[in-house]
Amino acid sequence: GGPRLPLRQRLCVAGAVAGAAAAGWLYVRRQKERQQRSRRLQQLRRLALGQGDFQLRDTSGAARSKADFLGRWVLLYFGFTHCPDVCPEELEKLSRAVELLERDPALPPLQPLFVTVDPERDDEAALARYLRDFHPRLQGLTGTPEQVRAAASAFRVYVSAGPRDDDGDYVVDHSVLTFLLDPDGVFRDCYGRSRTAEEVARSVRGHMDAYEPLPP
């Protein structure tokens, strides 16, 4: 069997072998984690391309889709200009959240969007007039009834027009939610009526800080 190594040498050799084995196992595990993460990101990329897409027009009449806003964070709210109280409150809150985030110039750009659920009354001119009372960068989007219905459906927003009164006026019942999309177009979060502007801004900042771009 040959001469035995001194105990200290035997321990050193055993330690080196164990260390090499541990390093090899750690490398394999990290490689596997990287591959899993890459697959998950690729799946997110494919999902993002079709998730919540829309084909609408802005207040200048230019065609707009989700692809036009890639590269920016987006806060998107569905509502209508004849909404008596909920929509103005939510747009004030959205505007305030954007202002809070804009105080930090190190944060990435954030685009606020308002999509009408009432295209019959909310044409480009009506949207432009209405949005003057809110954040100056808040963009309005409208379209044909079919386009608006498709956009709302893509975000699973409930929309139902109520009965008309004697003057032909009506209210549109709809989900009251503000959606957050990241620069890849991936849906990240949504905020209901109970969330304050400060809470929304804090949540958005958290998503921004944790954001990692999807692979091309």
Automatic annotation (TrEMBL):
Disulfide bonds join C83-C87. One of its GO terms (biological process) is mitochondrial respiratory chain complex IV assembly. It comes from Pheucticus melanocephalus (Black-headed grosbeak). PANTHER family: ELECTRON TRANSPORT PROTIN SCO1/SENC FAMILY MEMBER, PROTEIN SCO2 HOMOLOG, MITOCHONDRIAL. Belongs to the SCO1/2 family. GO terms for cellular component: mitochondrial inner membrane. Keywords: Copper, Disulfide bond, Metal-binding. The gene is Sco2. GO terms for molecular function: metal ion binding. It is a single-pass membrane protein. Residues 45-209 form the Thioredoxin domain. Cu cation binds at C83, C87, H174. It is found in: Mitochondrion inner membrane. This is SCO2 protein.
